[in-house]
Amino acid sequence: GYSDEEVSNIPNQIDIGKISIGGLLLTNEEEETLFNKYIQIIENGLLNQNFLKQENQTIEIDGKSVQTNSYSVTLTKEQLNNLYLALLEQLKNEEVILGKLDTLQIKDDNSQSLRDSFIDGIDELISQINQNNIGQDETTITVYENMKNTVRTSIQTNEYEINLDFLSTNGENFIQYSEENNSNNTTKNIALSENNGDLEINITTTE
Questions:
Q1: Beta bridge partners of 18
Q2: Are the CB atoms for 54 and 67 separated by under 8 Å?
Q3: Is the pTM of this model over 0.70?
Q4: Nearest 5°: CA angle at 158, between 157 and 160?
Q5: Which residues contact 188 (CB under 8 A, 6 or more apart)?
Q6: Chain mean position to CA 175
Q7: pLDDT in tens, 110-147
Q8: Residue 173 main-chain phi, psi, to 5 deg
Q9: In sequence order, what are the residues at sequence separation of 6 or more whose Cβ sits closer than 8 angstroms to the Cβ of residue 87?
């Protein structure tokens, strides 16, 4: 487990601007409700795990050196999948999101409502996880925080490493998803930069 002081130091805010679902913005109250609900599910899933804290870690984001504290936890495949299942079970009953989908009044190719298509998609994911939920493969999740804000979340296994970066400085916002697959030596990088209202998107892949 980890101490109350360590828990209080774990970042509790990811500032990535307004969240949009199907073009419909969430209100500030809805964002806060969703964040608190899902962070609680994650905290409950990690409650009995041992976190490793490392201070004064320097990482590079968008060519800038960022001083961080990092918090790492290692989970088995079964532990991680059980966390996914808890999040998905909540998500498929999440009226904040389902209500937004209802207002769009759009049907898919099978004449299903967006609500039903959304729920069916999650049920399919849940079924796939349940069919492949045993194993001792380990995944390490590391969260890097700077000034109480999460700037990088890293997921690392024997097969791949994924990094999700968020950085906001002096009117510039930077978001980057990067994936490195060790099994086939491929990489994927998607970066979004916003500077004074100008948005730039860069996508690169290597094989």
A1: none
A2: no
A3: no
A4: 60
A5: 177, 178, 179, 204, 205
A6: 12
A7: 677 888 888 999 999 999 889 887 777 889 999 999 98
A8: -115, 135
A9: 38, 41, 42
